[in-house]
Write a structure and sequence with these properties.
The protein is mostly helical. 56% of the residues lie in helices and 10% in strands. It starts with a helix and ends with a helix.
């Protein structure tokens, strides 16, 4: 018996940690609670007092040896105690933590530099080089193309990019009489327009003239209605910027926004606003108390009503093509059904206004 026990122990000592787990029917990295439960279950099954079959005693000794080894072993390392999935999860978590820490350090460094810049001693001074650096246009990649906005120049400046959309599918879900949801599936095409440094410079000047005219009319134009001051600023900015580009011999970069549909909507806006306005002495235009309701109705309902009414006419697709002839690529995309933007409430007002200004 002594020799048998010694031989069994010597064999068990040569087993690896993986073999001990296999003896107890466990996966590698099992917890202490799982090891105890497996040992009790197997010990009741192979105990010599309950199991008199051949080999039960040896099996019981192997189980006991494996249990004693696993319960007395030091805490397993992370690589030994975890599965491959756990190691992958820990690695992903570590990389994500490092990325977040790197971003936090970059934000702190940027904030520190900003504080140093604005808290530097002396007056805040803007040098002439700073102004020139803001106005000066950087040259783009060398190109053999002609500038599309000034045909007499080469396209050596930053190109202008236009993104067109085409709705290919609409999914509508109804959750009740007044609860609907619509999802649009769109295709987009980005067109790069070659532009010279000079054209880019005058386009930037044109945006500055529009913004300056709009602010001046909002602040100083002698009209009581802020809505009409805003419209006057848009008109003044459009006229002055057109004159500037005309003298420079540069085409406007936003001519593609001028479509029959846009002009019809602008005309509807003007007619409705004139109906709720009162012209006083000295051409002082005032609006009635219904202005907020009317403006909200135009913003949220005009596009839907416009599509419902105009959609019955065969010329409906032509309403979204530019009146000013564009390049060959843009014209072909418009013929395929692409548009400048999605005709949605609010968005169809803000998008062309933002593009026109900037």
């Amino acid at each position: 018996m002594v020799n048998g026990d010694w031989i069994s122990c010597r064999k068990s000592n040569s087993l690896t940690a993986k073999d001990y787990y296999r003896v107890l029917g466990l996966n590698r990295g099992a917890s202490g609670k799982q090891i105890k439960f497996a040992y009790r279950k197997l010990a009741l099954k192979y105990h010599p007092d309950r199991n008199h079959s051949q080999g039960a005693r040896q099996k019981f000794q192997e189980i006991t040896t494996a249990y004693n080894h696993l319960m007395s072993r030091p805490e397993p390392s992370g690589d030994e105690a975890s599965s491959y999935e756990d190691q992958v999860a820990r690695e992903v978590l570590r990389r994500e933590r490092e990325r977040m820490q790197k971003q936090a350090r970059a934000r702190r460094e940027k904030k520190r530099q900003e504080e140093e810049f604005f808290n530097r001693p002396g007056r805040f001074k803007t040098s002439w080089n700073d102004v020139v650096g803001f106005i000066k246009m950087e040259q783009g990649h060398p190109s053999d193309d002609r500038c599309c906005y000034s045909r007499s120049e080469m396209a050596n400046g930053t190109s202008y990019r236009i993104e067109l959309l085409k709705t290919v599918d609409i999914k509508i879900r109804s959750y009740g009489a007044l609860n609907h949801e619509a999802k649009y599936k769109n295709k987009s095409k980005k067109v790069v327009i070659p532009r010279s440094v000079r054209a880019h410079l005058f386009h930037r000047f044109s945006s500055g003239v529009k913004i300056f005219s709009l602010l001046c009319c909002l602040l100083f134009f002698p009209l009581e209605s802020i809505l009409w001051r805003f419209l006057s600023g848009l008109v003044a900015g459009g006229i002055l910027s057109s004159v500037l580009l005309g003298f420079a011999g540069v085409r406007s970069r936003v001519s593609y926004l001028i479509t029959p549909g846009l002009l019809i909507k602008v005309l509807i806006w003007l007619i409705v606003l004139f109906q709720i306005s009162i012209v006083g002495p000295g051409f002082n235009i005032q609006t009635t108390g219904y202005v907020y309701i009317v403006v909200a109705g135009l913003i949220f309902l005009l596009d839907m009503v416009f599509d419902l009414v105009m959609g019955f006419f065969p010329f409906y697709p032509w309403l979204f093509r530019p009146l000013v002839r564009q390049g060959t690529i843009l014209n072909s995309l418009y013929r395929e059904g692409y548009r400048n933007y999605q005709e949605l409430p609010v968005y169809s007002i803000l998008f062309p206004l933002f593009k026109w200004l900037f």
